Amino acid sequence: MKAVKVEEKAEGDSVCENKIKNESLTTELHFELLKQYTWLASAVIGAVIILIQLKAVELGEDVYISLGLLGLSIFISLIGQDHIVDSLLKGKDIYKTSKILKLIRVTSMLCLALGAGYILSGIF
Question: Where are the chain's structural domains?
Answer without folding.
Answer: 11-123
